[in-house]
Design a protein that fits this description.
CATH architecture: Sandwich
Number of strands: 9
Order of helices and strands: HHHEHHEHHHEEEHHEEEEHH
Strand order of the largest sheet: 1-7-4-9-3-2
Helix content: 25-40%
Oligomer: single chain
Radius of gyration: 19 Å
Structural class: alpha+beta
Largest sheet: 6 strands, antiparallel
CATH class: Mainly Beta
Number of helices: 12
């Protein structure tokens, strides 16, 4: 199955899925899948359940690598900090550039970063939030440049790839209000804005958003190096605020369900051969999340 859906094709399917009869049938099928999978959800701790409940209620849950206590956490942060010096601005860079991503080669040189997103405890937490088997779409190591550009992910948006999308964001450096925090609008307010703007997909400039809701309702995720943010980015308006004082370094880990219908994801952040190389020591469950295209439901 070819999952590389062009943007135009995605939009066509999105519109088709909004036709009342089609939407009703999809809603029924989705709820049936959720109900069927409930008995297969993994057992997680009370603390992890509280994380899930907070994401469901607010749209975001903030913790830290220290609080999560996953064995590979110290190695993740050390590796990420080592990589920051290698994410260089190109000499002939575009004046409109606002973010630099680590290359596939750089991520492969530091496999700890990519593999952290497949930690079984994280997959279990995400499965409870999504309510279905998890697809792991990879990791993106970002250097967001300290400039005044407001474009792309610095504009307000919802992630349209699935009914429930979850991103884990790890701050590599300290992030204050002036260092480009991840910002979001709480779940309850987002639903009202969607209805008011008749929003379906795309980016919303901050000027437009301020006409709909007071900036006092914006929530900035402030934190020191090692802060971890679980964000249901398919359900809350969010953006990366433009850094002012210095560049912001973050790692994003992306997840959806494996449902064939209504899944509008492109591909993994790494090529297939790289995934095969990284998967040698993974468990069956981890491999199913990694090679999710082979386990669509």
């Amino acid at each position: 199955m070819n999952l590389l859906l062009p943007k135009i094709q995605k939009r066509i399917f999105k519109k088709i899925y909004q036709i009342p009869f089609v939407k009703q049938q999809n809603d029924i099928a989705y709820q049936m899948a959720i109900n069927k999978h409930k008995t297969n959800l993994p057992i997680i701790s009370k603390d992890d359940l509280e994380l899930v409940e907070k994401i469901n209620h607010e749209g975001v849950a903030i913790t830290s690598l220290d609080n999560l206590g996953i064995t590979s956490n110290p190695q993740l942060l050390q590796t990420a900090q080592a990589l920051t010096s290698q994410i260089q601005l190109e000499i002939n860079s575009d004046d409109n550039q606002y973010v630099i991503h680590a290359s596939s080669q750089q991520i492969m040189a530091y496999p700890t970063i990519f593999l952290w997103g497949l930690e079984q405890r994280l997959l279990n937490i995400i499965e409870h939030y999504i309510g279905l088997p998890v697809a792991y779409h990879g990791t993106y190591f970002r250097r967001d440049l300290a400039n005044q550009l407001e474009k792309g992910s610095r504009l307000w948006h919802l992630d349209p790839e699935d009914r429930k999308v979850l991103k884990i964001i790890v701050y590599v450096n300290d992030v204050s209000e002036n260092h480009g925090p991840f910002q979001y609008i709480p779940l309850s307010l987002t639903s009202n804005i969607v209805q008011y703007l008749k929003y379906n997909y795309g980016y919303i400039p901050n000027e437009t958003m301020q006409k709909v809701i007071s900036p006092d309702n914006y929530k900035s995720c402030i934190g020191s190096s090692g802060t971890v943010i679980f964000a249901g980015t398919g359900s809350i308006f969010h953006r990366g605020k433009a850094p002012e004082n210095s560049d912001r370094f973050t790692i994003f880990f992306d997840y959806t369900s494996r449902r064939k219908k209504e899944l509008f994801y492109i591909n993994n952040s790494l090529p297939y051969q790289a995934l095969l190389q990284l998967s040698k020591n993974l468990s069956v469950q981890q491999k199913q999340s990694l090679f999710w295209q082979e386990y669509l439901e």
